[in-house]
Amino acid sequence: MFEKLIAIIIKEFKQLIRDKRTVALVIALPLIVMTTFGIAYSGEIKDVPIALAIEDYGYPAKIIINRIMNHKAFYVKYITNDMDTVKFYVEKGYVKAGVVIPDKFSYKIVYLGQAEIIAILDPGWFSIPNAVHSVLKGIAAQSIDDIATYIYSYYGVKKSINIEVTPYYVRGELKIIDIVGPAVMGIMVQQVPLTLAAISIVREREKGTLEKLLTTPTGRFDLIFGKLVPYAIVGVLIGIGELLIVTYGLGAINYGNLVDITIVTLMLAIASLGLGLFISIISKNQLQAMQFSTFIMLLSYLFSGFLLPVEGIRPEARFIVYAMPIYYFYIAIGGITLRALSLFDVIDQFFLLAIYATVTLSLSLIFMSKRLE
Amino acid sequence: MDRMIIIRNLVKRFGTIVAVNNLNMDVYCGEIYALLGPNGAGKTTTVRMIMGLLKPTSGTIIVDNVDVVKNPGLVKKKVGYMPQFFSLYSDLTVFENLDFYGRIYGLPREIRMKRIRELMKIAEITEYKDVLAGNLSGGLKRRLGLAATLIHDPKLIILDEPTAGIDPPLRRTFWKLFLRLRDEEKTILVTTHYMDEAENADRIGLISQGRLKAVGTPREIKKMVYGGHLMRLILAGKNIDINTINNIDHRAIIDVLKVKNLGDSKTEVILVVKDFGSTLPIISSELQKHGVNIVLAEPVPITLEDAFIALTTGEMPCLKN
Ligand SMILES: Nc1ncnc2c1ncn2[C@@H]1O[C@H](COP(=O)(O)OP(=O)(O)OP(=O)(O)O)[C@@H](O)[C@H]1O
Ligand SMILES: [Mg+2]
Predict the structure, then answer these.
(1) Which of B12, B14, B213 to mutate to test the pocket of ligand 1 (most atoms within 8 A of CB)?
(2) 3-state secondary structure of B251
(3) Concatenated DSSP letters for A279-329?
């Protein structure tokens, strides 16, 4: 009574293992994802770009500053002497966090045994604020002995001292939707056009329509860009739609203007299409194309800098992050919607997306065969 | 005569399979050339190489004076190609498919609309204008495929098994259309494994195992099997045997296939002759010299099927009594 069932099971297995590339995609890809994930996520936070405001030049301050400068979690991008500049840098997204050693820090620690350093944090960077805060607390704790020794040797007093790390959130605290909204938007704007594009050419190949189309005067350019335009429009509409729902329906913060958002979103859609078309060209069938695009989706959740910031990923594995179009988009869209930046402020990310699109589309044009083989 | 397609030493290998094996072939301008061969003979592979869809392993293909292996793009506007399997968009309607291909070939709107109207009429699909192509019957799909192939009025039309799996009336309709197109000075290369319809072609190329086994008009092809035409004679006279025939002037008779005594002084003889009409009087007068009369003389029809089997397998077809 199970013959039919067994027949189908056997057939499915055979089909699954018939093409080597399918086998690789079905079995090897998940393994690769898991391994990279393991490697990438096993490190500790590293190289977070920060700005440092030094308002106090006493020796105890120097001890702290020295530790901050040499800590591998931080990459001190700017040093200034006032807190407002640091706040400004954090607000604008030039750095991901700031540290202020306030005026009279050394005085307070020596005479009151109690002082604070201020962590300027941007809650828009998902897990960065917590990480920075705890690294700073660690630095403070480690510095206590050194400072106590210094006080003893200079002033001859033994004193129990305490250093507080006070968090200061630029623009106040954020709701989860404020942070997740743009990320989800990015995933959709990347994934919908990418999947459509990934299937597009390989579907024509499978259905036999490509055989006819290739014998007409249409060139690679027509084929690629002809498919790109409608998918890009769909991608942008979906993205903007999602953002409007999140902003007006769910009350997420959005300081951006719609034109800037649309332009950046369009660029992400085009970059994703480039990637999708490339997938379509190297896939033998629709199943493979789907596998590829699911794989990219998984990777973009894990490595877009959203769940875990790029600073939290091991440097050896960071190239995966840079290979995801959504990484650039996420920085740009976060800047526009959460940090009230203009397109001009995030033009670097925009251009990186444009380069991404140019590279993937060029690869598609180059590798797209005008033959059936 | 000018040649539309010239193929020289064409080879196509798929791994170890040799699909096309040193093929040489010419298609003249303004003719219908039928590439006739059994399944797996290499017809589709050949046609795909002509269309630039497959890259030959070696050899040259010239279409309308252009080397299509080197410049696959140059002749595309002049050629209309209908693949063996349905290759239009199932989720577009009949009209939308034709309109799409009209645009692809850059036809201006007015001309496009006129052309679509004409072609739908010729292919008798006007009433299905708004039906999704995927919902058409097999025969209608073929008609639509043909219409799409002709949309840009190509001077060379290449059809890969256009009549496979369609009913005899539609096949006849198709061939009528091919003849009409030929009269409009189009060149048509059509592949098929139906012998009967190949007979409508101006010339036939017999392909088997990737090689062209024979080329010629349908008459010539049939002649090739025995090296001439078959003539059946019923002779009346005594003591007729193989020698009676062998004594006749040898230039007219190529071979003697059969001599059978029917009793009652009647003998059936089947001869291979150079030509039926001119040979009969010679034989007749020669036989009369030996006192033998011809009671009946008739040509034995050789079907293309016989020829096909004979030329592709080397087996001589059995003669029916
Ligand atoms: N892509 C391919 N890979 C491997 N072998 C192929 C491929 N395409 C064709 N062949 C082989 O080449 C030979 C010729 O095939 P082709 O399709 O040209 O034959 P055909 O004359 O068109 O047959 P049919 O009448 O069945 O359509 C066959 O043996 C076939 O199996
Ligand atoms: Mg074929």
Answers:
(1) B14
(2) coil
(3) HHHH-SSHHHHHHHHHHHHHHHHHHSSSSS-GGGS-GGGHHHHHT-HHHHH
* DSSP single-letter state for residue B282: H
Does the ipTM surpass 0.85?
Answer: no
Phi-psi region of B40 (alpha: psi -120 to 50; beta: other; left: phi over 0): left
Nearest to B217 by CA among B230, B206, B226, B229: B206
Residue A51, phi then psi, degrees to nearest 5: -115, 145
Question: Where does B70-225 show beta strands of DSSP type E?
Answer: 79-82, 156-160, 187-192, 203-208, 211-216
Residue of A nearest to B85 (CA): A208
The DSSP output letter for A181 is H
Where does residue B100 fall: left (phi above 0), alpha (psi -120 to 50 degrees), or beta otherwise?
A: alpha
Task: Supply the pLDDT for residue A278.
Answer: 92
Torsion of the alpha carbons at A211, A216, A218 and A219, rounded to the nearest 10: 70
In this structure, which ligand is nearest to the CA of B19? 1
CATH domain A48-169 topology: abc type-2 transporter like fold (3.40.1710)
User: CA-CA distance, B133 to B141, in Å (whole number)?
Assistant: 7
Task: Print the SS3 string covering A79-139.
Answer: EECCHHHHHHHHHHCCCCEEEEECCCHHHHHHHCCEEEEEEEECCCCCCHHHHHHHHHHHH
Alpha-carbon distance values, B314 to B23, B308, B310, B311 (Å) = 19, 9, 5, 5
What domains does chain B contain, in order, with CATH numbers? 3-222 (3.40.50.300), 226-301 (3.30.70.1710)
Q: What is the 3-state secondary structure (H, E, C) of B49-114?
A: HHCCCCCCCEEEEEECCEECCCCCCCCHHHEEEECCCCCCCCCCEHHHHHHHHHHHCCCCHHHHHH
Q: Where are the domains of chain A?
A: 48-169, 175-372
Residue with tokens 């009087």: B281
| Alpha-carbon dihedral A266, A271, A276, A278, rounded to 10 degrees | 140
Give the pair of three-digit tokens for residue B279: 């040979």
Probe target for ligand 1 pocket from B44, B54, B158, B208, with the most ligand atoms within 8 Å of CB: B44
- pLDDT for the residue B321: 42
pLDDT in tens, B152-178: 999 999 999 999 888 889 999 999 999
Contact B91, B136 (CB under 8 A): no
pLDDT in tens, A44-65: 888 899 999 999 998 889 999 9
Residues in B closer than 8 angstroms to A212, CB to CB, are: 81-83, 87-88, 148
Q: How confident is the model at residue B319 (pLDDT cuts 50, 70, 90)?
A: low
**Please, are residues B292 and B245 in contact by the beta-carbon 8 Å criterion?**
no
**CB proximity under 8 Å: A 7-66 to B:** none
Do B199 and B304 meet the contact criterion of CB atoms below 8 Å apart? yes
Token reading at B130: 């708004």
Measure the CA angle with vertex A265, ends A261 and A270; round to 5°.
Answer: 155
A341 conformational bin, left if phi > 0, alpha if psi -120 to 50, beta if neither: beta
Residue among A366, A29, A60 nearest A220 (CA): A366
Structure tokens at A326: 């959504």
Instruction: Express each pLDDT in A188-240 by its tens digit.
Output: 999 999 999 999 999 999 999 999 999 999 888 898 889 999 999 999 999 99
Q: Which residues of A touch B87 (CB under 8 A)?
A: 207-213
Highest mean pLDDT, choosing among A212-226, A283-297, B45-59: B45-59
Chain B contacts of A211, Cβ < 8 Å? 48, 53, 83, 85, 87
